[in-house]
Each structure stands twice: as structure tokens, then as C-alpha cells.
């Protein structure tokens, strides 16, 4: 579902990439109850790219993500997610040094930006239609039998998905009766009926 792209102008080791991918996956899936199997992370070496900031050639490290946005995800949620990702970068890659002079041999490990783009409006992943933002629990419930079937057929990704969902209790979050009762309570309050009268 979300797709994070790390554009790095510095050399990252395989273990740094692995650790950062795990950190981003954990941060996003925990923040929004997205199953880990559906968090995608790609690394692009942009050390040879010509990038300009303020009209001047600069190199930098950036994390960009295409995510699902919706009313269940607030600006505060996105800001907190961005800060957590920036802290993970600093912990794994290293906090950037103060601005150094051009020509210095020390790489600038500074993370220049985290940019979240809420432009995923639909699509397919692993053969399943993507749910709207905030609809993960209902989507998991609706597709649970199909996920189980894929796991039973030996698909390792779906075996991991089943374990992730069960360990984190993601299916317990979906209660269609609770949603209906909450909607009815809102109507009662607006109309001045029931306990709200």
C-alpha cells in the first residue's frame, strides 16, 4: 500500500538499508495498522543525479512516500510519522554533521526531507484491491479466507501476513456492530433522540 522511496546521495551499506526498511515498515504499520506485508520500501542511489536547491546544485538524502490519505489520518498523524522516520534515519544512518565545506571527504548524512504524498486512490497489491485509508481492519476481515488459502498453498508472504495480523490483533479492531452503533448514536445526537435528548 504505502511505497517509500529513499533517495540517498551517500553510500548506504546493505545492513543500513535492511535496518531502515524494517524501521520504516514498523513505524508505518504500527501508526496505521497496515499489515507489514503491504509496506513497500525502495532505495535509489542518487549520488550521480544533478539536483538543484534554490537554483544551486546540491546533493541530499530524501525519503518520499506515496500513501493513502483520508479522514481517519490527521495532520498530526502525518507529522508524527515524519518525525519518527527522521529519527530512525538519524539512529541508523547517523545524524548529519553541521554544513561542511564543499570538497570535504566526510559524507553529509543529513536527511534533507521526508515528503508524504497522499495520492494513492486505489489499485491492486498481491492480487487484492487496496482498501481506503482507515479501512484496513474491515478489508482484512473481508479477505481473511483468501489470505488463509494463499498461506495454506505455501505462499511465504501470506504466512508472514497471517502471523503479523494475529500477533498484532489487527482483526479484533473490526467490529461492524460497533460501527453501526456509533453511527446510530451520531444520528440520535443530531436529531435530539434517545440519550442525547
Main sheet specs: 4 strands, mixed
According to CATH, what is the topology of the largest domain? Macrophage Migration Inhibitory Factor
- Low-confidence stretches are none
For the largest sheet, list the strands in their spatial order: 2-1-5-6
The CATH class label of the largest domain is: Alpha Beta
Judged by helices, strands and strand pairing, the structural class is: alpha/beta
Count the helices. How many? 5
CATH architectural group of the largest domain:
2-Layer Sandwich
| Overall average residue pLDDT | 86
Helix fraction, binned, reads 40-55%
What string gives the helices and strands in order? EHEEEEHEEEHHH
Structure overview:
- With 197 residues, the chain is α/β, with parallel strands linked by helices.
- It folds into two domains: 131 residues, Macrophage Migration Inhibitory Factor, CATH 3.30.429.10; 63 residues, no CATH class.
- The chain has five helices and eight strands.
- The mean pLDDT is 86.
In short:
By secondary structure, this protein is of the alpha/beta class.
Main attributes of the structure:
alpha/beta, Macrophage Migration Inhibitory Factor, 2 domains, four-stranded mixed β-sheet, 8 strands, 42% helix
Reconstruct the topology from this structure:
Blueprint: E1 3-8, H1 14-32, E2 40-45, E3 52-53, E4 56-57, E5 61-66, H2 75-92, E6 111-117, E7 124-125, E8 128-129, H3 136-152, H4 156-168, H5 176-191
Parallel strand pairs: 1-2, 5-6
Antiparallel strand pairs: 1-5, 3-4, 7-8
Helix pairs in contact: 1-2, 3-4
Amino acid at each position: 500500500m504505502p511505497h517509500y522511496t529513499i533517495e540517498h546521495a551517500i553510500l548506504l551499506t546493505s545492513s543500513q538499508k535492511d535496518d531502515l526498511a524494517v524501521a520504516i515498515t514498523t513505524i508505518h504499520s504500527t501508526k496505521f495498522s497496515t499489515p507489514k506485508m503491504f509496506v513497500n520500501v525502495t532505495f535509489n542511489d542518487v549520488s550521480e543525479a544533478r539536483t538543484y536547491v534554490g537554483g544551486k546544485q546540491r546533493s541530499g538524502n530524501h525519503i518520499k512516500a506515496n500513501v493513502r490519505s483520508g479522514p481517519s489520518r490527521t495532520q498530526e498523524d502525518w507529522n508524527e510519522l515524519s518525525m519518527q522516520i527522521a529519527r530512525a534515519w538519524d539512529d541508523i544512518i547517523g545524524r548529519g554533521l553541521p554544513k561542511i565545506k564543499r570538497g570535504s571527504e566526510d559524507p553529509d548524512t543529513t536527511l534533507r526531507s521526508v515528503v508524504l504524498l497522499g495520492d494513492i486512490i486505489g489499485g491492486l497489491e498481491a492480487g487484492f484491491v487496496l482498501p481506503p485509508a482507515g479501512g484496513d481492519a474491515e478489508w482484512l476481515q473481508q479477505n481473511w479466507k483468501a489470505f488463509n488459502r494463499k498461506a495454506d498453498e505455501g505462499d511465504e508472504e501470506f504466512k508472514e501476513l497471517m502471523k503479523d495480523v494475529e500477533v498484532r490483533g489487527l482483526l479484533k479492531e473490526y467490529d461492524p456492530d460497533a460501527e453501526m452503533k456509533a453511527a446510530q448514536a451520531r444520528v440520535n445526537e443530531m436529531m435530539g433522540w434517545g440519550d442525547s435528548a
